[in-house]
């Protein structure tokens, strides 16, 4: 058997073996960088700087001597630079929007799961409250005890009156 790039069969290969090795990049770092660029492209600061650069470009290439001009009218090189900037800006903005959509989707899934847990908890508590109400139906409540005490008091008072009347009747004899 020939020598292998990996020493164990249960371990994945760590790198490509071949003549051409493509550079690797961290997609997360690239995504964060693209979001920062897209955020900057959407600011007033970018518009001001872009306007200043274009004005300087046009002034440089129209008012200065021919020796130092690098892009004569109709400013083809400026058009090329603006097209290049636009061709990079659009995909960077789309990449940033896709990443934001992914974050929104994850947040929505977490909100949905949290909502489901809240609904389940609410249903559980509703069942518990219903069970407690049923249990309290069999237990004497404060109002029931007060009404029963009132009737017991009135009964005791009538018995005391009867006893007093009998005592007075027996003393009168």
From TrEMBL:
It comes from Kitasatospora purpeofusca. InterPro entries: DUF1003. The chain crosses the membrane at residues 46-63, 75-95. It holds the Pfam family DUF1003. PANTHER family: INTEGRAL MEMBRANE PROTEIN-RELATED, MEMBRANE PROTEIN. This is DUF1003 domain-containing protein. The keyword Iron-sulfur does not apply. Keywords: Membrane, Transmembrane, Transmembrane helix.
């Amino acid at each position: 058997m020939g020598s292998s790039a990996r020493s164990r069969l249960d371990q994945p290969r760590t790198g490509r073996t071949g003549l051409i090795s493509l550079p690797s990049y961290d997609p997360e770092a690239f995504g964060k960088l693209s979001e920062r660029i897209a955020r900057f492209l959407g600011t007033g600061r970018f518009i001001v700087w872009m306007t200043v650069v274009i004005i300087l470009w046009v002034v440089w290439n129209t008012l200065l001597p021919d020796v130092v001009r690098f892009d004569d009218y109709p400013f083809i090189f400026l058009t090329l630079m603006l097209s290049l900037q636009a061709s990079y800006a659009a995909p960077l903005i789309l990449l940033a929007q896709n990443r934001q959509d992914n974050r929104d989707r994850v947040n929505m899934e977490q909100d949905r799961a949290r909502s489901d847990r809240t609904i389940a908890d609410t249903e559980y508590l509703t069942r518990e409250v219903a069970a407690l109400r049923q249990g309290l139906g069999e237990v004497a409540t404060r109002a029931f005890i007060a009404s029963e005490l009132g009737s017991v008091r009135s009964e005791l008072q009538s018995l005391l009156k009867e006893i007093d009347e009998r005592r007075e009747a027996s003393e009168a004899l």
